[in-house]
C-alpha cells in the first residue's frame, strides 16, 4: 500500500515538473488557464490535444495564448507579458489579476446578421405569396371577362392591380431598409474582422494576421525572410517599474520596428516578441534593415513619464532566416527562434542570421 502511495506521489511530482518545463519552454505566464492547459496536454500525451500541440510546435515554435484559446482554453488578456522573457517563469510569484476576454461583440454581430437573413427571407416569401395570389386572381378575372364580357370584372382587376402595387411598394421599402442594414452589418463585420487580426496594445497585426500574410507571401517567387525579435530582459522592466511602463516600452519598440522596417510586415507575435517578414529583399538587405531598427532602439534613452527618472536603454535581440522553398511556417519560425536564442547567448542586443 505504501509503495502505491509513493509511486502516485512520484508520478504527481513528475507531472508537476513537466508542467513547469512546458510553461517555461513556451514562455507562458503561470496562471490557472495555462496551467490547466498544460496539465491536460501532459496528462494524456497520446490524446488528440497533445497531437495538435505537437503539430503546431513542430520545429521549435512556441505556443501563444491565442493557440491555447483556439485549442479550447480561454485566452487570458492582461497577464504579464514578461513572465518568461529571458528567464523561466517564476513559480513562486503571486497570481496576477487577469481579465478574461469574451466574444460578446462577435456574437452580437452574428445574431444580428442571422436576424437580417431571416428578415430578407420573410420579405421574399411574402412577396412570392402575394405575387402568386395576384396571378391566380388575375387569371380568374380574365376568364370571367372572356365568359361574360362583364365590365364589373374589369373593375375588379383594376382593384386587384392597385392593391398589388401597394403591396409591392411596401415590400420595396422593407427591402431597401433591410439592404441599408445589411450594408451597416457588413461594415461592422469588416471592422470586427480587422480587430480580431490586430494587437490591441501596439496596434500591430497579431500572430494570426502574420501567419495569413506568410502563407500568401511564400506562394510568390520573391524571396521572403522572417525574423523573431525579443525585448532583452523585459521581465526586469516589469518587475522594477510595473506593467504600465512595460506596456509603454512595448509600444515604443513596436513603433520603432514599424518605422525602421517600413513597407515590410511587422507583427506582435506574443508577449515581448515581435516578428518581421521581409518580402522581396535579399537576406543581406533584410539584415541591414533590421540592424538599423535595432540600432535605433538601442540608441534611445527612456524616462519614466510620472517622475522623469531615467529608465535607461532598452534593447532587443533577433534571429533572421531566409525562407526556403520546402519550409513550413513552423520550420522557418523554429529556425529563426533558434537564431534568436543564439543572439541571446551572444550577449543580447544583436541579430543572428543564418546567411
Q: What separation lies between the terminal Cα atoms?
A: 60 Å
Largest sheet, strands/sense/barrel: 5 strands, mixed
Give helix % range: 55-70%
* Computed structural class: alpha+beta
Could you give a quick summary of the protein structure above?
The chain is 60% helix and 11% strand.
Describe the structure.
It is a single chain. With 355 residues, this protein is an alpha+beta fold. 60% of the residues lie in helices and 11% in strands. The chain has helices spanning 2-25, 32-43, 48-56, 65-70, 104-148, 151-196, 207-217, 234-241, 243-260, 283-299, 329-345, and strands spanning 76-77, 99-100, 224-231, 265-270, 273-279, 302-303, 310-312, 316-322, 351-353. The strands form three sheets. Strands 4-5-3-8-9 form a five-stranded mixed β-sheet, sandwiched between helices. Helix 1 (2-25) packs across helix 2, helix 8 packs antiparallel against helix 9 (243-260) and helix 9 packs across helix 10.
Secondary-structure topology with pairs:
Blueprint: H1 2-25, H2 32-43, H3 48-56, H4 65-70, E1 76-77, E2 99-100, H5 104-148, H6 151-196, H7 207-217, E3 224-231, H8 234-241, H9 243-260, E4 265-270, E5 273-279, H10 283-299, E6 302-303, E7 310-312, E8 316-322, H11 329-345, E9 351-353
Helix pairs in contact: 1-2, 5-6, 8-9, 9-10
Attribute tags:
355 residues, alpha+beta, five-stranded mixed β-sheet, two-stranded antiparallel ribbon, 11 helices, 9 strands, elongated
Amino acid at each position: 500500500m505504501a509503495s502505491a502511495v509513493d509511486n502516485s506521489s512520484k508520478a504527481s511530482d513528475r507531472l508537476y515538473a513537466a508542467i513547469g518545463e512546458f510553461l517555461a519552454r513556451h514562455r507562458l505566464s503561470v496562471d490557472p488557464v495555462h496551467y490547466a492547459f498544460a496539465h491536460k496536454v501532459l496528462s494524456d500525451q497520446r490524446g488528440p490535444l497533445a497531437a495538435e500541440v505537437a503539430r503546431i510546435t513542430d520545429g521549435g515554435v512556441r505556443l501563444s495564448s491565442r493557440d491555447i484559446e483556439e485549442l479550447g482554453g480561454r485566452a487570458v488578456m492582461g497577464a504579464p507579458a514578461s513572465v518568461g522573457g529571458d528567464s523561466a517563469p517564476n513559480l513562486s510569484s503571486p497570481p496576477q489579476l487577469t481579465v478574461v476576454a469574451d466574444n460578446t461583440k462577435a456574437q452580437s454581430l452574428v445574431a444580428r446578421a442571422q436576424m437580417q437573413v431571416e428578415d430578407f427571407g420573410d420579405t421574399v416569401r411574402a412577396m412570392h405569396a402575394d405575387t402568386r395570389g395576384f396571378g391566380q386572381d388575375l387569371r380568374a378575372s380574365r376568364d370571367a371577362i372572356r365568359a361574360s364580357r362583364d365590365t364589373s370584372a374589369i373593375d375588379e382587376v383594376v382593384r386587384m392591380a392597385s392593391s398589388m402595387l401597394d403591396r409591392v411598394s411596401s415590400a420595396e421599402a422593407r427591402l431597401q431598409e433591410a439592404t441599408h442594414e445589411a450594408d451597416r452589418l457588413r461594415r461592422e463585420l469588416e471592422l470586427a474582422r480587422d480587430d480580431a487580426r490586430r494587437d490591441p496594445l501596439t496596434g500591430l497585426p497579431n500572430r494570426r494576421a502574420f501567419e495569413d500574410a506568410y502563407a500568401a507571401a511564400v506562394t510568390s517567387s520573391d524571396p521572403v525572410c522572417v525574423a523573431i525579435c525579443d525585448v532583452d530582459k523585459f521581465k526586469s522592466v516589469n518587475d522594477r517599474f510595473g506593467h504600465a511602463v512595460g506596456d509603454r516600452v512595448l509600444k515604443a519598440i513596436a513603433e520603432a520596428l514599424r518605422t525602421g522596417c517600413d513597407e515590410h510586415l511587422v507583427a506582435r507575435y506574443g508577449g515581448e516578441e515581435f516578428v518581421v517578414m521581409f518580402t522581396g529583399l535579399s537576406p543581406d538587405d533584410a539584415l541591414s534593415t533590421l540592424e538599423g531598427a535595432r540600432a535605433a532602439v538601442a540608441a534611445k534613452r527612456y524616462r519614466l513619464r510620472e517622475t522623469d527618472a531615467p529608465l535607461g536603454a532598452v534593447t532587443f535581440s533577433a534571429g533572421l532566416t531566409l525562407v526556403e522553398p520546402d519550409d513550413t511556417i513552423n520550420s522557418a519560425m523554429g529556425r529563426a527562434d533558434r537564431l534568436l536564442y543564439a543572439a541571446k547567448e551572444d550577449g543580447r542586443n544583436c541579430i543572428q542570421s543564418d546567411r
